[in-house]
Design goal:
homodimer; 166 residues; alpha+beta; NADH Oxidase; 4-stranded antiparallel sheet
């Protein structure tokens, strides 16, 4: 599965616009993720507004690339939709990874920008997007067509593999 | 990316053995995942031992399929390896999702069996596998060649998509 291995964090983008059709493919990939008891506790905020994109780096130290990104998707968990308590971050992480892989497969560059549980990031993002109390932003996915191709990195580390027990 | 959309939870398996080459492909996919500041805080316990596989359903209510599975991979986070505190569950969830997608692509059936943060599952699994204090099992991936093909499910839900803000 090439896209799994070719995915890299891409922070520099061209000015090419991402089509609505492509954004829908990304969201479909996110929603195809597994979730605890199939609860699907997610919401996706698709940000194209340049003012909102540029506001995020003012409080998030690792979000500077959003000033150049064509689009961002904020993946959120909804505590009301969560039937198996305390599994929403795993569900939403699986959805995020699906979006990153699909983005790679579609020729897009992307970065997973961590938000939850760092409250210095959660609170201002929550306010900026006008989220309901029960909806928590897990992360931001920065998206754009890449200006450069990064070669795949081999992270395989046999010392992290154990057989039958530790 | 077909494997993202074709992935289903598969709980019934043939007796076909999963080769070491295939297991290495799954682990390579897991380790290709993104992680906070590229910390890669994961360990993978590959369980082939039938006694250990059969011991897990004695304390985990949703792990009965492990009695028939050829193999399981327990994805663990290592708090010592975690440089960005409290992001390890997201990193290990991304690694888990990569393994599930790669498994689908290789013709395997799989299930994500939730463990952390349910302490009634974490503690007995931790003891069974002899894990160090700082290593926490996030989930178990059950693996085997499927006895049936489940059709893809369309989980696309436009009501979960928001534009620019809530």
């Amino acid at each position: 599965m090439n896209a799994i291995f070719n995915r890299r964090s891409i922070r520099k983008y061209t000015k090419q616009v991402i089509s609505e059709e492509t954004i829908e493919k990304l969201l479909r990939a996110g929603m195809a993720a597994p979730s605890a008891a199939n609860e699907q506790p997610w919401h996706f905020i698709v940000i194209k507004d340049k003012e909102i994109l540029s506001a995020i780096p003012k409080f998030h130290p690792y979000a500077q690339m959003l000033r150049e990104a064509d689009c961002a998707i904020v993946v959120c968990g909804d505590l009301v939709l969560e039937t198996n308590k305390n599994f929403w971050t795993q569900d939403c992480s699986a959805a995020t990874e699906n979006i990153l892989i699909e983005a790679t497969d579609l020729g897009l560059g992307s970065v997973w920008i961590g938000v939850h549980p760092d409250q210095d990031r959660v609170k201002p993002l929550h306010a900026l997007l006008g989220l309901p109390q029960t909806v928590i932003p897990l992360c931001i996915i920065s998206l754009g067509y890449p200006t450069e191709i990064k070669a795949p990195v081999d992270r395989f580390n046999p010392s992290r593999i154990h057989r039958d027990r530790w």
